UniProtKB/TrEMBL annotation, chains A, D:
Any GO CC annotation of this UniProt entry: plasma membrane
InterPro entries with a match to the protein in the record: MetI-like, MetI-like_sf, PhnE/PtxC
UniProt KW keywords: Cell membrane, Membrane, Transmembrane, Transmembrane helix, Transport
Organism: Caballeronia arationis
Transmembrane segments: 21-39, 78-104, 125-152, 188-208, 215-234, 240-263
Matches recorded under SUPFAM superfamilies: MetI-like
Residue span(s) of domain ABC transmembrane type-1: 78-260
Family to which this protein belongs: Belongs to the binding-protein-dependent transport system permease family.
Name of the protein described by the UniProt record: Phosphonate ABC transporter, permease protein PhnE
Subcellular location: Cell membrane
Recorded topology in the membrane: Multi-pass membrane protein
GO MF terms held by the record: ABC-type phosphonate transporter activity
Coiled-coil boundaries: none
TrEMBL record, chains C, E:
UniProt protein name: Phosphonate ABC transporter, ATP-binding protein
Stored Pfam families: ABC_tran
Disordered as annotated region, ranges: 279-300
Biased composition (Low complexity): 284-300
Length: 268, 302, 300, 268, 300
């Protein structure tokens, strides 16, 4: 009797399952269709990679050995870059925390979350160069304009990442806090933040790192920095110097990455 | 007929913004009239195109003067033509500008009081933003961008122009093309700009091909560019649309000589002011630079 | 005034499962009610509705706590957070914040009495910190105060959740299987404390339980659910083998013996109840005063 | 007696707590010191923002009304950009999943995780322009080189984000899978992926979106795309056109953001 | 051959807490052992060590399962994943994958018998799907197969975790408070099934329990822990009030009565044991065959 039971239940469930798998089937088909259509627009020619691999090797060889003759300049520019990135990220962090929370669907009501999300979309989507120019006319050329431009863009990115981490939390601990009659703010501070902290820290440090790399803005507002040095080196085809600068950037990025792991383990 | 495939790299240079839809008609005409199969690529930076030319992934390029030097030296390129302006001018000018309301009324004032001045400069490989003013404006007057001013902020032409219009910087370098664009787009802003100094003529932007192109192809290209937009009003309209050009003129690597001189001069200055280089190194480097400069002088004298 | 009043409460989940089916229920102030029923019968769902964590079906229905509506016709009222201050909830799965220390988890129960800046920087007043320590000690996990909640054993987590509820000093306690993961001695402690709060300080308690014997021992009234419906509501003594058979399925031969034994025990319990009120561990009474709601103490 | 107990326990715990709060105090001091030192290098002049706000308004007004005259071009270029971004992201995704898992400390042993992490750091840190040129010399100018350059960089970013999401999972479900004697692969497929999926999807779509915006590389390699159009509009002070292009980008970014929310809700 | 053999096992956690203190323990093949002890006494920690989830202190120690070492001197062996196939573990906190369906959660128990590509795409063979359904039905949650594990009630989750363990067809079952969240009837079902597997198919079972009466009823042998040490190991009948008082603290006046009652029950139980073996719900025996380990069946 039990095995009959089992198979009957099995069959009804199979029909439910087949409905789900139909939907996912359609999803896959759509995905492959999009990939297929983009193939041509993106002019994919994978075989070309095999045709002239020697070129890559020849090009790559120019980077060795790295030329550290100007390391003092690099170090100085690196410090400027770090300073701009630190302030750009710090200001962004201050704005991204409330904006991120307000655009998380499981925290803010939809009529707040959606407008905030769209605003953050705009912060990300509007070209950094435009923001840079906007701030040039207000505060003139210099690192400060770079800080401001990075700030707006980074806020947009971090708020989005923050919000989506919040949306993926385990609801139970937050509910535990809510059960005590705590306010919404308490619920966030005690129920949500402890859960998302490791991810938030890793996002913030990722954006910091990527602000260190984002030479475009910083260069265009006349703030100098290692990114500008790097572009100069590339544009003057001085690949040995390029390699030296990139090695420094790699070291910094690795340090930030290690720091990220360390902080996440420690503070949390 | 056999259609040879060529890649044509076009970059946005100092003096033009390369808009795909503006160039494409010219490319179409090129294909039609020569029977070649030319594919155009538009890039925002010259480095990629020059490397591509070095590895023979690009055969023709439209560059700025400074980048053309690289194409010639690095990528086996050769200047074969340059654009002509409608005004009949064979080039454009580097400028030193300031806001109309600023207290700096003349270039002499600026040169005298350079210690009090924040200078907006061009990015280091810019011909009109950096090379020309450092040589003709500063070096000739015994100044140096690095040491003679209160501060120097290297950035792009647009950023400099904006900063001047909004009176956020004392003086800045720029060029006539940029200012013309501003005049066309925002006449009111243009009125905010005072020109303090105008450089000698900078040759207009060159076309470069790879030296090892088959002679037959070269001939086809040359005859096309020589005669393009000579009479046909449609072709003239196309040329004008690109950036106020009127056609092409023959040119050669010689066009690059003054630019080379400036570049070498700048290099020399760098070497001299380099605090970390030993004196012996400095001497040998300066000697080679001087030799190159004198070689150029003889070429120029011809 | 009734502490809890529920009218026509139904809940159908997104997947079509009807977890509650027009429940009507009144719990008077100072009552201690056992909520029993087979696994999946809707006990947790009912408790969650009472505290306003889940919105019921959009049909005419009504839940009032201490005279204040918490939801009406499927819509949870806006001031629900205020009302919850008077209601302590012990979750079946504890719902602790694993990354915070046990102490902080317990102090969360005191949040509504603490000023904003203290809450934000996490500096709780000494009196609250002492209360938190007391409640941890009452639960027998005082020495774990500084550990992360996630490193506690199952029973310790359950007791930490209870400690949080105690610190809240609420007038109603809704406890979802609060002794499921506890050993007999800890269970006794917890239930004694609840009873002391209930008897001495007028706390209203609804406790969902699987142990019929515990229900018999501690709760005068029992509500039994089956498939989301109330199938029994009355004095615990009146629980008959028939009712239990109905609750837990027909196959339960042994359950009947168990139930009978429990009934036997209950009778014996009742006989000794008078002495108990005194004899009941002094410990529980000693503790309970600290956790009694100031409001209810004033009221009674 | 109990209250004595409580206070004694309270005091020992207080000393532990004070040790912890000392450490965190030091952390805060270090943080503020860094911010303070960077203040000068970044040339922060917040008051300047208030001095000429009129400039910003004047500048901002030039963007209105947006000029959609050339919308056909924009649309066409947008499609190219999307195609490049789709393939760049898709290829990156394929690599980032294994690399991300291998660099998660709670999955891979440290002697695998660390080298993989450093490799990913390099992928992010090495300038995109360098990668672009590397691929140009192999496959020539065009969208394909852009796809390849985006691929490497995006792999570096996604692998990092993926790994840190994996490090933040709840260990219990994975342990539940492990308990059945399942292999490491099974543990990942059944215990880890279901937990990280919502975040992974949001990361992947964030990078897709940011690849749509990262016009630099694509434009640099002559792949065309909306980014080149945008730069040209900015550089020719054609702000009405700039605004039009940016609006299109905002719409696309918003659509991707909405899609991200939709997919996360649905598929998971 | 002993099913489980533990020598000098100690565990000190990062925060300095000594959870296990030189445990020595042998469990023969086909034994059914109850593990009791107060909350926090180290039951879960011990079970987790047996299955190799936690590495003990780096001191000479030894755990062997079915003759194969699972850890030696604090180092877990490399082939631990293989060995775990023969050991089913029921976690105190269930450890289900909340986002997967109940069916998939249960099928995870069958992973080690399924080919690689099927595991990767999630297409399990029909025979395994049927076994999974059978085990869900045996646990009484067959109709929840397609729901997400996270939407189940507490007791349903616990039964899903048990179903997963059943599908594994292991030779040893380590169950950590498997009936904590279950109603009496479901508890009986689960324990009957375990007993049937144990008696009819030679399964070895170690079950941690808080309910002394259940231990008395189902397990011939009991191991009691206090503060990480084995304080009692012998026939369950020999559990004396003194032992229980030692286990659960000295204050427990009532516990003694409970324990005495339990003893009374146990005596009565033992008397009826013979009839039981037959009378025991046929349902359990009917089910158990499906979940018996093929290996042990062949062996016995
Ligand atoms: N990861 C950990 N880190 C630190 N301490 C731990 C950890 N896990 C368990 N402990 C401590 O070890 C002791 C034993 O815990 P364990 O979970 O084995 O208890 P238990 O007997 O299973 O209790 P319960 O019946 O409450 O589940 C407890 O005091 C607990 O706080
Ligand atoms: N979020 C949900 N989505 C869908 N169904 C749910 C959800 N929560 C509970 N259910 C279903 O509602 C029914 C009642 O669940 P509930 O948790 O109230 O049971 P319970 O009486 O507390 O059981 P237990 O004693 O096992 O905890 C169950 O069948 C359960 O599967
Ligand atoms: Mg429940
Ligand atoms: Mg335990």
């Amino acid at each position: 009797m039990n095995s009959v039971d089992a198979s009957r239940l099995g069959s009804t469930s199979a029909s439910v399952a087949s409905k789900r798998s139909w939907a996912s089937m359609l999803g896959w088909i759509a995905l492959f269709a999009v990939l297929g259509l983009s193939w041509q627009s993106a002019d994919m020619r994978p075989l070309d990679l095999l045709r002239d691999p020697g070129n890559m090797v020849r090009f790559g060889r120019d980077f060795f050995p790295p030329d550290f003759a100007e390391w003092r300049t690099y170090l100085h520019e690196m410090i400027v870059t770090l300073a701009v990135a630190i302030w750009g990220t710090a200001l962004a962090l201050v704005c991204a925390v409330p904006c991120g929370l307000l655009s998380a669907q499981n925290i803010a009501p939809v009529w707040i979350a959606q407008p905030v999300r769209r605003m953050m979309d705009a912060c990300r989507a509007i070209n950094e160069m435009v923001f840079a120019m906007l701030f040039i006319v207000a505060v003139g050329l210099g690192p400060f304009a770079g800080v401001l431009a990075l700030w707006v863009h980074t806020t947009g990115v971090l708020a989005k990442l923050f919000a989506e981490a919040v949306e993926a939390i385990d609801a139970r601990p937050a509910e535990g806090v809510r059960a005590t009659g705590a306010s919404g703010l308490d619920e966030i501070v005690y129920g949500v933040l402890p859960q998302v902290m490791p991810l938030w820290i890793s996002f913030a440090l990722y954006r910091f790192e990527s602000n260190v790399r984002s030479a475009m803005v910083v260069g265009m507002v006349g703030a100098g920095g290692i990114g500008v040095v790097l572009y100069e080196a590339i544009r003057s085809f001085n690949y040995a110097q390029t390699a030296a600068v990139m090695l420094m950037v790699i070291v910094i990025v690795s340090l930030i990455d290690l720091g990220s792991a360390w902080v996440r383990e420690r503070v949390i | 007929a056999y259609a040879e495939t060529l890649n044509f790299g076009i970059i946005s240079t100092d003096s033009s913004s390369a808009l795909k839809q503006r160039w494409q008609p010219l490319i179409d005409d090129l294909n039609k009239q020569t029977g070649l199969d030319v594919k155009a690529f538009f890039a925002t930076d010259y480095a990629g195109i020059i490397e591509a030319m070095r590895f023979n992934k690009v055969q023709i390029g439209f560059f700025g003067n400074a980048s053309a030097i690289e194409a010639v030296d690095r990528s086996n390129g050769e200047v074969f033509a340059k654009v002509k302006y409608k005004s009949g001018e064979a080039g454009y000018y580097s400028l030193l500008i300031t806001n109309v309301n600023s207290k700096w009324k003349s270039v002499d004032q600026v040169l005298k009081n350079s210690r009090e001045i924040n200078l907006g400069f061009g990015d280091p490989n810019s011909t009109s933003g950096t090379l020309v003013p450092s040589y003709y404006l500063l070096a000739k007057n015994g100044l140096s961008a690095k040491t003679s001013f209160k501060s120097v902020l290297p950035s792009s032409h647009e950023a400099n122009l904006l900063a001047v219009v909004n009176d956020k910087i004392d003086v800045a370098t720029n060029n006539t093309d940029m200012l013309d664009t501003l005049k066309a787009q925002h006449p009111d802003r243009y009125k905010e700009v005072r020109v303090l100094w105008k450089s000698p003529l900078i040759p207009s932007d060159p076309l470069v091909w790879r030296r090892d192109l088959p002679q037959a192809t070269k001939d086809k290209l040359r005859s096309f560019f020589d005669h393009y937009a000579e009479k046909d009003p449609r072709e003239q309209a196309i040329m004008h649309a690109i950036s106020g050009y009127s056609g092409f003129a023959d040119s050669s690597n010689a066009q690059l000589v003054p630019i080379r001189q400036m570049a070498l001069f700048q290099k020399k200055e760098q070497v001299q002011s380099d605090a970390h280089m030993s004196d012996a190194d400095k001497k040998t480097q300066l000697a080679t630079l001087d030799q190159k400069l004198s070689e150029l002088d003889t070429v120029a004298a011809k | 005034m009734d502490a809890i009043r529920i009218e026509r409460l139904s809940k159908t989940f997104g997947n079509g499962r009807k977890a509650l089916d027009s429940i009507d229920l009144k719990v008077g102030t100072g009552e201690m009610v056992a909520l029993i029923g087979a696994s999946g019968s809707g006990k947790s769902t009912l408790l969650r509705h009472i505290a306003g964590f889940t919105a019921p079906d959009l049909e005419p229905s009504h839940i009032t706590l201490l005279g204040r509506p918490i939801q009406q016709n499927g819509r949870i009222v806006r001031e629900v957070r205020r009302i919850r201050r008077d209601v302590a909830f012990v979750f079946q799965q504890f719902n602790l914040v694993g990354r915070l220390s046990v102490r902080t988890n317990v102090l969360i129960g005191a949040l509504s009495r603490v000023s904003l800046w203290r809450r934000l920087v996490g500096r709780f007043p000494t009196v609250e910190r002492e209360l938190a320590m007391q409640s941890l000690v009452a639960m027998g996990i005082g020495e774990h105060a500084n550990e992360r909640a996630s490193t506690l054993s199952g029973g310790q987590q359950q007791r930490a959740a209870l400690a949080r509820a105690l610190v809240q000093r609420a007038r109603i306690v809704l406890a979802d299987e609060p002794i499921a993961s506890l050993d007999p001695e800890s269970s006794r402690r917890v239930m004694d404390l609840l009873r002391s709060l209930n008897e001495d300080h007028g706390l209203t308690a609804v406790v969902s339980l699987h142990q019929i014997d515990v229900a018999m021992k501690y709760c005068a009234r029992t509500v039994a659910l089956r498939d989301g419906r109330v199938v029994f509501d009355g004095p615990t003594d009146h629980l008959t083998p028939a009712v239990l058979r109905d609750l837990y399925g027909a196959a339960a031969d042994e359950l009947l013996t168990d139930a009978e034994a429990a009934e036997r025990d209950a009778a014996w319990e009742n006989a000794r109840r008078a002495e108990r009120v005194q004899a009941r561990s002094n410990e529980a009474s000693a503790h309970s005063a600290a956790f009694a709601s100031a409001a209810s103490a004033a009221g009674s």
